[in-house]
Amino acid sequence: MKNHSEKLAIIGGGTIGMSIAIPLSQNGYSVTVTRRNTDKIRELKDYGIEISNDNSKAVEKSDIIIFALKPYDIIPEMEKLKKLLEGKIVISMAAAISLSQMNEILKKSYLVRAMTNIAAKVSSGFTPFSVLVKDEKIIKKVESVLKSFGETQLVEERYMDALTALSGSGPAYILTIIEAMMYGGLKVGLPRDLALKASYQTVLGSAKLLAESTEHPSVIKEKVITPGGVTIEGIFELEDLRLRTAIMRAIESSTKKSNEISRAIEEKIRKK
Ligand SMILES: NC(=O)c1ccc[n+]([C@@H]2O[C@H](COP(=O)([O-])OP(=O)(O)OC[C@H]3O[C@@H](n4cnc5c(N)ncnc54)[C@H](OP(=O)(O)O)[C@@H]3O)[C@@H](O)[C@H]2O)c1
């Protein structure tokens, strides 16, 4: 276990808050998770994680605060906690909330906008992040927090809506593909458990192969396709039914939605 001295509060113990809490605690952070209905996060206590329905108290005793609330709930909650957040590192996990929107409220905090995904739960998330002020010491601390639940990378904020669509929503696309592969297996008579295992293990293995290689996916793909063989029959169907176009469209549409939500939140703030 790494020995981090920082105390960390996660405001919002829902899907994402819960997913990151356990890896953070296992990485040595002293973690408090809040939500209004604490009954739903009782299991966290078994991991030595404190649970609370008092955001102020959790913020007060912590050095780093992670907001894992729904986008529309973040700004009002930051307003309430503004004074207590001064001088602290504040990481927002929300889609669509920009650093400048947060900065209008939290002028005296170190602001970070991050976008993780549900694979954080098994320490295999991808969490790109952006900062308002490039302070190397703060960036190192943030990287250390985010690396607790997978890979991370500092990026320009203008890429955040696209990354929300690609890697934030990405597990939903990949799980749809895994489900489709399993159905393919069922269609040709494989037992359900075997079809599912063969599907997810193939996705896991292909991703690992790519991650550990310097080659482009198309180069690795070519190694599976033999002339007149089995694979090219399947590839022909995928090309005919435009799988690549469908996935490109999914990411483009999700990015547009993320842009739309950002604009709607911006308008709401301006109207205040
Ligand atoms: N789900 C994903 O795969 C995913 C991926 C990437 C990014 N995100 C981002 O992560 C953020 C959280 O999403 P989510 O899917 O985890 O949502 P979620 O499951 O609805 O979690 C939000 C949690 O916040 C709690 N909450 C609401 N108001 C609160 C308050 N005032 N104080 C403390 N807790 C409060 C809610 O519990 P109570 O009602 O009991 O308070 C709820 O459990 C979003 O901004 C989203 O954009 C999500």
Structure description:
Strands 3-2-1-4-5-6-7-8 form an eight-stranded mixed beta sheet, with helices on both faces. The protein is built from eleven helices and eight strands. The mean pLDDT is 96. The protein is globular and about 70 Å long. The protein is α/β, with parallel strands linked by helices and 272 residues long. The relative contact order is 0.10. The protein has two domains: 7-157, Rossmann fold (3-Layer(aba) Sandwich); 170-241, ProC C-terminal domain-like fold (Orthogonal Bundle). The protein starts with 6 loop residues before the first strand and ends with a helix. α6 (160-168) crosses α11. It binds NADP nicotinamide-adenine-dinucleotide phosphate. NADP nicotinamide-adenine-dinucleotide phosphate is lined by residues 11-17, 34-37, 55, 68-71, 73, 77, 93-95, 115-118, 168.
Outline the fold blueprint.
Layout (H helix, E strand, L loop, with lengths): L6 E5 L3 H12 L3 E5 L15 E3 L2 H6 L3 E4 L3 H11 L7 E4 L6 H5 L6 E5 L10 E7 L4 H12 L2 E5 L5 H9 L1 H18 L4 H20 L5 H8 L5 H11 L2 H29 L1
Parallel strand pairs: 1-2, 1-4, 2-3, 4-5, 5-6, 7-8
Antiparallel strand pairs: 6-7
The protein binds NADP nicotinamide-adenine-dinucleotide phosphate.
Question: Which tags fit this structure?
Answer:
272 residues, alpha/beta, Rossmann fold, ProC C-terminal domain-like fold, 2 domains, 11 helices, globular, binds NADP nicotinamide-adenine-dinucleotide phosphate
